[in-house]
Amino acid sequence: MFKRKTLFVVGAGASHEVGLPVGSGLTKDIATRLQLVFDRDSITSAGDRDFTLPFFRMHQRESLEYALAYRTVREGIVLSRSIDDFLNIHGDDPRIVLVGKSIIARAIHAAEFKSDMYVDPSNVHNQIDFNKIEQSWFVKFMRVLAPGITVSNVENIFQNVAFIVFNYDRCIEHFLTGALSRLYDIELSKASEIVKTVTIIHPYGSIGSIERVPFGISEHNPTNYVSLASEIKTYTEQIEDKTALDQMQNCVESAECIVFLGFAYHEQNMDLLRPDKPARKEIYGTAFGMSEADKLAVINELNGSFPSHSGDRVHIRINNTLTCAGQFDFFAKSLAG
């Protein structure tokens, strides 16, 4: 169990361990889905027909304008670090934003379906194959979380844990529900209610609650992805959401330990996490594949927000050789507190 208030800040690299795409993979998938063919009298899809045909039926009167928005997104996102950055650049164009948010919802839903966590809903007894994801950080996190928590007090399992998740997927919610059900032999419905007690903040939104939008339904499921666009936020929309900002600030300020998992430390995201007043924290973080120079830059930035005191032991540990799973292998006792 975690013996101190621990905040997990989660980026795309964390979900990548169970088969979801990181930023560049997501942008390539989106570009492929947005391919169009222009005939003399019509616009047809050369990419994701199950997304494009309903989209243009909903916007028949503005089909040309939305076709141009399709092209702008498809051709421009390769030059951005992520689809999030691209939508922030084009935040003043409502058509580009709608296309971008809708296709994010579609692509993430399809990625959940293809992930190692997908559960076929055709049989109510089907569950996550935990053997398949045993080497992921999700399982290793559970191995730190559960000791000391029995069936009789499982409702308290998340009392020292919170998450700020910069991903649109629902892997954490989906995993925790399945893991609690399996480990403690409780009904999925009860596990779901317990998971709802943990603070899980998605600063840029998600593709909807799992109750409303089941995890990873087949790509051919007739989901209205335009309606899900409202669940996705641009950076500008996020910084205008004072309630969400205050909630994140409370999580950061109350945490004794902060753990970054699969997080890229982009400046705009770091700005959302920076406390109003410098506060000392114990910090762990992955920076897998990052250069030593960039790793030191991240450490310096964190030191500015969470300074140490004279004589204190080193309390910021950013490692560029460990994956998210490796973080738990290497620091399990330290993370537990």
Task: Give a structural overview.
By secondary structure, the chain is of the alpha/beta class. Helices cover 46% and strands 10% of the residues. It has helices at residues 12-16, 23-33, 49-58, 63-76, 83-89, 94-114, 137-145, 171-184, 188-195, 225-228, 235-239, 242-254, 267-273, 292-305, 324-336, and strands at residues 6-10, 36-38, 43-45, 161-165, 199-201, 257-261, 282-286, 316-319. The protein has a 6-stranded parallel β-sheet, with helices on both faces. Strand 7 (282-286), helix 14 (292-305) and strand 8 (316-319) form a beta-alpha-beta unit. The model has no long low-confidence stretch (mean pLDDT 92).
Structural class: alpha/beta
Can you list the strand order of the major beta sheet?
A: 5-4-1-6-7-8
CATH class of the largest domain: Alpha Beta
**Total DSSP helices:** 15
What overall form do the CA principal axes indicate?
globular
- Number of DSSP E strands: 8
- Uncertain runs are none
Name the helicity range: 40-55%
CATH topology of the largest domain: Rossmann fold
